[in-house]
Amino acid sequence: MRLLEGIAASSGIAIAKAYCLVEPDLTFTEKTIEDVQKEVERFQSALTIAKGELEAIRKIADKELGADEAAIFNAHVLVLNDPELIAPIEDKIKTEKVNAEHALKETTDMFITMFEQMDNEYMQERAADIRDVTKRVLSHLLGVKIVTPSTISEEVIIIAEDLTPSDTAQLNRKFVKGFTTDIGGRTSHSAIMARSLEIPAVVGTKDSTTLIQDGDIVIVDGLSGKIHINPTAEVISQYEAEQQKFEEQKAEWAKLVNEDTISADGHQVELAANIGTPEDLEGVINNGGEGIGLYRTEFLYMGRDQLPTEEEQFVAYKKVLEGMEGKPVVVRTLDVGGDKELPYLNLPTEMNPFLGFRAIRLCLEEQDIFRTQLRALLRASSFGNLKIMFPMIATLEEFREAKAILEEEKQMLLANGVVISEDIEVGIMVEIPSTAILADQFAKEVDFFSIGTNDLIQYTMAADRMNERVSYLYQPCNPAILRLVKMVIDAAHKEGKWAGMCGEMAGDEIAVPLLLGLGLDEFSMSATSILKARAQIRQLNKSDMVELAAEALQMGTAEEVVQAVTNRLKK
Question: How far is CA 496 from CA 96, 251, 266, 272, 499, in A?
């Protein structure tokens, strides 16, 4: 048995076999071949296996994810059946007497370069298809396993260096019982998605991919941040008891599912959920969510090879709005960049992507993408209580421009007889310190604020939230962060507006008392955190928390604040 420690990212305990989601090593050297016919047959064999795999994946994708996702794999099968691609590879093997790996890579690289340089969007998409299938065929030529998360069909724990949002979008929570990663912190997207999927996770272990092998029995303790590799029967038994205890605690919290969120002295707040897809609605409803405080629409754009259409987006937004039955739904417009990439946009590589061309900055420049999303949202607005939120706003000019584009699209739709809600609130995420400092001016023009503390903390502390080596600087209770949060809440209330928080801080049991004291109106968090937070708030007196928050604002370190909260909660 071996023990690893990392950062507890998503509560719960999972016990299952390891499934290593590691990029395969596809390096090879060019070789001269004597028996060219045998080499051609080796290539054809790899081709046949790859086709069979893609057919199997297509069927699973069609059943689990729908026809749109399955269409990607149809395109991949077509590539492998295309004589225009296959014949040149076989000819290269025969005429140049080179190994199949070299012939495959040389030929496909030529096609990829050619298609990427074309102005035609459809042909550019074919380049991505060729790149994907090349990797699959090459893996079979080299005898290397290629991992496909969507095909997992047994209970496993995912072991990965990191999980991209597109990786997590493919995970089936029926089979994926938990995961662990080498890198990341509590606010990395893999951690956030783990909480959304309601599965235990430990991140930032540094070397789980090195020490854990496929098929090892693994325990992921998302409560303490521990990973047990091939544990003894006694340890497994202990953790099974811990699992049972945790489930019993969840059952107690579940009794509050239909209750309002009211403090012990009668102050009511709203507990909402952060979601990534319409499929997350079930978790929101089952956990007593009083609204959606953050709908991360970027997941509509990921795990595919082209932009979603207006109609696809309309259907998704309508489903969420209808599913919440009149409860508020705050939809964040497209927020990509940083660690959330869309390969088909061919965006340039940046030195500091978190500080670069992302979120509203991209949308204001790529207005066709932005306007398509806004039209879909406006069309869906009549089916529920929609609120639209722009991310990464740094200046008033950005907000004004985004709102003007929204108004233009609204007027065009109304002119065409489209029914649009008259009560759409338009707000911003506050995730840049300059915006928090200027909140009094923003509050005159926005309908609401939602504080995105994952990025606000990162930018305020100058600490990359994806880097586990500086994870100690992720300090939600640092007085500097609390002062910025207070500025935003006070500015909103002065103008009669409401202030929410959609960062992970909103569900942190140490931060919740402080936020209640600071006057936060809406707490939006992973659905699985709602009932625990509701139980906590019902035991707090807001008047006491106002006093506690005032004291915390005058302290010098996060440690002092945490200790003060801990001491107060013990009373």
Answer: 76, 38, 21, 21, 10
